[in-house]
Description:
The protein is an all-alpha fold and 258 residues long. It is built from 9 helices and no strands. The longest helix is centred in the first third of the chain and has 30 residues, at 2-31. Bound molecules: 2-acetamido-2-deoxy-beta-D-glucopyranose (8 copies). Residues 29-179 form the SPARK domain. Keywords: Signal. This is Nodulation receptor kinase-like.
Amino acid sequence: MNNWKLSDFVKQILALYMIIIPLAIASQTSANECVLDFNVPSVWNDSNLNAGNWDEFLNDSLCATPFVRYMYSLGRRANQTRLIFLNKTEQKDCMDTLKSEEKNVFSCGIEKLTRGSPGGCSDYSVTDVVNKLGSTLKSLGENCKLLGSDGESSEACGYCLRRWEEMGALSSNNSSNDTMKIEANICRFAVLISLTSQRMYDVEWLQSIYNCLGNKNLPLADQAKDEEDYTSHKGREVLIGGAGGDYNSSSYYIDDPL
Length: 258
Ligand SMILES: *[C@@H]1O[C@H](CO)[C@@H](O)[C@H](O)[C@H]1NC(C)=O
Ligand SMILES: *[C@@H]1O[C@H](CO)[C@@H](O)[C@H](O)[C@H]1NC(C)=O
Ligand SMILES: *[C@@H]1O[C@H](CO)[C@@H](O)[C@H](O)[C@H]1NC(C)=O
Ligand SMILES: *[C@@H]1O[C@H](CO)[C@@H](O)[C@H](O)[C@H]1NC(C)=O
Ligand SMILES: *[C@@H]1O[C@H](CO)[C@@H](O)[C@H](O)[C@H]1NC(C)=O
Ligand SMILES: *[C@@H]1O[C@H](CO)[C@@H](O)[C@H](O)[C@H]1NC(C)=O
Ligand SMILES: *[C@@H]1O[C@H](CO)[C@@H](O)[C@H](O)[C@H]1NC(C)=O
Ligand SMILES: CC(=O)N[C@H]1CO[C@H](CO)[C@@H](O)[C@@H]1O
């Protein structure tokens, strides 16, 4: 009787292992799977992308194509989940996936956009961006709305790019402090991904905005007007730290850009 019980016990253990081991293997492989879908719609054309380095955010302009694809994929995920940035582990898994297309992707500097520090923009969801940086989101959309409508207009890009530059400058003005600069960048990328998530249907426009913002070489529109707008609207929304409750304030854009 005892012997029978023992072998029964062994059988149970074996059966348990047969369940646990495949489960463990399955969860291991899924942990290494990128949460992003890097496929782009058929209208998306990588060869139309200008290779910019995003104001030196990227180490190399060769990084532009994988970076933009990454941004687009984050936007698509944000559209479905409202989440913006990936955490460290998720990001590493996705870089592994991108690596097959661009082997230098690990030295691009993309890892600067990682979810982390609670309270900062890196931890924002689209809902946070709408609530805390709503007028920035709106004004970027407004200033960039003429893109892609009539081919590539460098004037349309000028207005768009100028707003983007301001978003980088507003919060980092006082400090040539690198930490602050990175945080300002994370904030404006959180806004850009949120905008992307709201405009998924407009692939051509998205390509235009990425082309425009990635290339600082295009002309900035009307510096004098820039100064005037900046001073009259300055301080309305502080990008870093999300002042909050600003969603209803009038947005900051040029009413009649042309
Ligand atoms: C992508 O754009 C390039 C240049 O504009 C063009 O030559 C190429 O045919 C396009 N590819 C697709 C798949 O549309
Ligand atoms: C990252 O997110 C995944 C799933 O969302 C979670 O399982 C994992 O623990 C997170 N990792 C870190 C380092 O926060
Ligand atoms: C790219 O930039 C990161 C900082 O974001 C730096 O740590 C890394 O060394 C750079 N890589 C190269 C190849 O320049
Ligand atoms: C810059 O510094 C001044 C005075 O030190 C301060 O009033 C202002 O709020 C700061 N601006 C930013 C964007 O931090
Ligand atoms: C940069 O600024 C932040 C916020 O004001 C501060 O916490 C940090 O210590 C500064 N870093 C350096 C190197 O000055
Ligand atoms: C998600 O994308 C679709 C298609 O572009 C759009 O109609 C919808 O408003 C987006 N949803 C959110 C929450 O932004
Ligand atoms: C923003 O406007 C909505 C309705 O237009 C209102 O319900 C809400 O309280 C306003 N929020 C703030 C912070 O003023
Ligand atoms: C880009 C920008 O806004 N720069 C301003 C930073 O703040 C100083 C005064 O503290 C201004 O003179 C700059 O124009």
